Amino acid sequence: MAEAKTIAFHTLGCKLNFSETASLSRLMEKEGFEKRAFDALADIYVINTCSVTENADRECRYLVRQIQRKSPESFVVITGCYAQLKPKEIAEIPGVDLVLGASEKFNLATHLKELVKGDAAKICSCDIGEVKDFHDGFSVSDRTRAFLKVQDGCDYQCSFCTIPLARGKSRSDLPGHVLQNVKELAARGIKEVVLTGVNLGDFRNMEPGSGKKETGFFELAHSLDQMKEMPRFRISSIEPNLLTNEIIDLVANSDRFMPHFHIPLQSGSNRILAMMRRRYRRESMPLRSWRPLRRTEFWAFCTPGSARPAPPISCRVQSSTACGPRPAGRPRWSWRSASSCSASSRRSTAAGSTCF
Ligand code: SF4
Questions:
Q1: How far is CA 260 from the centre of its chain?
Q2: Parallel/antiparallel/unpaired status of strands 314-318 and 137-140
Q3: Are 339 and 315 in contact (CB under 8 A)?
Q4: What pLDDT digit, counting tens, does each position of 8-36 carry?
Q5: Span from the CA of 297 to the centroid of ligand 1 (angstroms)
Q6: DSSP three-state, residue 321
Q7: Topology of 6-126 in CATH?
């Protein structure tokens, strides 16, 4: 397929997937491919899938059908979490030419060279336990904000989650490389960087044989906080057991880190948390975090139907989005205890969680 020169991407799922699609797109442009919009005609269509949403399969089939109707001669490549988890199922979708698992998606250009239209779909996948490489990436969501991938994979085994099977062991970018990427984003005019990962709080310096004291997420955030080039940072989501007081203090006292935490609390019931194999108890989360709350916003997420954390767990919510329109005269930020948030004020999110 030497003549195929135009390529279009579609991303399903999370910010991490978006940053990886953006990296793939840049890689392919370096290889000489011309990027097209997904609804335009292209020689190759790449769908970067997600395994979290219930309808991953349906969405994927729908997109492939769309491509087939529009451009039957184009190549269709499926990659991402769903491709790693269910490669055979995807390969059977009529119109799919190539399925790339977690380790192979960044070798897209090489795999495309060997592709012949009309052959049975080719699967390039591997045992997820063998995936050890880290591929950095960033995507720009608007003109001034970028999502920067600094961590991938997860060593936890929460009973409801397939992410470790789709993305493999926890691994991180090198701290120096993260700083370099931030400088590059600053040079492109980006004003806000959202630090993104699967289990972001598990970030650690994995430089082999560096002999340095291990660098964790706090040390990374501390280094970023010193960077004059970037006006704002944001932490995308952090596991409750990894959100330490020192991270909260840093964010609360920083002029660069936005005072906002997204915490996937999942449930307020210890029985449910144990069944989910989460690494914290309901008592361990809230009160150690009180000190800096004056200027820090917390979002806590529970799965629908699970017990909400009973008082004293409280969260500070942005009344204009989480609990309906802001009443006149009320401050932009308000204190609400979990129990005082009515059911009608809860909001379902795309991830299937409920914000209260
Ligand atoms: S910590 Fe998050 S990504 Fe890791 S297994 Fe649990 S839910 Fe999945």
A1: 17
A2: unpaired
A3: no
A4: 999 988 888 899 999 999 999 999 999 99
A5: 23
A6: helix
A7: Rossmann fold (3.40.50)
* Residue 117 in this model has a pLDDT that exceeds 70: yes
Which part of the chain is CATH 3.40.50.12160? 6-126
Q: Could you tell me which of 271, 345, 356 has the C-alpha nearest to residue 308? A: 356
Gap between the Cα atoms of 342 and 326, Å rounded: 15
Q: Which residues contact 43 (CB under 8 A, 6 or more apart)?
A: 1, 3, 4, 5, 6, 7, 74, 75
- DSSP H or E run through 7: strand 6-11
A 10 A CB-CB count for 25 gives: 20
Atom index in ligand 1 nearest the CA of residue 162 equals: 8
Kindly state the tokens that stand for 256.
């660069």
pTM of the model: 0.79
Ligand 1 neighbour 163 (Cβ under 6 A): yes
Token pair recorded at residue 305:
């139907």
Query: Which tens digits make up the pLDDT trace of 67-82?
Result: 999 999 999 999 998 8
C-alpha distances (whole Å) from 22 to each of 29, 139, 197 are: 11, 5, 15
Q: What is the CATH number of domain 133-236?
A: 3.30.750.210
Residue listed under structure tokens 């997820």? 128
271: amino acid identity, one letter:
R
Cβ–ligand 1 distance for 280 under 6 Å, the answer no
